[in-house]
Amino acid sequence: MPSRNVSLRLQGLQKKDSGSYSCSVNVQHKGHDSKTVELNVLVPPATPACRLLGVPRAGANVTLSCQSPRSDPAAQYQWERLSPLPQVFFPPVLGEGISGNPEAVAGEGV
């Protein structure tokens, strides 16, 4: 082989391409050496789908739901009321293996 640099080019990466890749070098009469590289393919979140559940009437309860069908690492969500008074709502942290939509509860004085 004419070059001392042999590269592996991966095109169109997918999550399933994540893993360990090892490069082995054999030099005749000099021995063998290898190095391993860890590849972790990140998946950006898809455009979130958001909706309102319930009837927005005084005294009623409503749920604002927002989710992304895919992302790695998992997407983090935050709701923010923009007006008349700005307010940020932080959802609870979901542990590994727990599914569902984070929920933020708000009311007067929250």
Automatic annotation (TrEMBL):
Pfam families in the record, alphabetically?
V-set
Q: What GO terms describe the biological role, i.e. biological process, of this protein?
A: homophilic cell adhesion via plasma membrane adhesion molecules
Question: Mind listing the GO molecular function terms for this protein?
Answer: cell-cell adhesion mediator activity
Record's InterPro entries?
A: ESAM, Ig-like_dom_sf, Ig-like_fold, Ig_V-set
Immunoglobulin V-set domain ranges (all copies) = 3-42
PANTHER family per record: ENDOTHELIAL CELL-SELECTIVE ADHESION MOLECULE
Q: What's the name of the protein? A: Endothelial cell-selective adhesion molecule-like isoform X2
- Species name: Heterocephalus glaber
Q: Lineage of this protein's species?
A: Eukaryota, Metazoa, Chordata, Craniata, Vertebrata
Encoding gene per record: LOC101722104
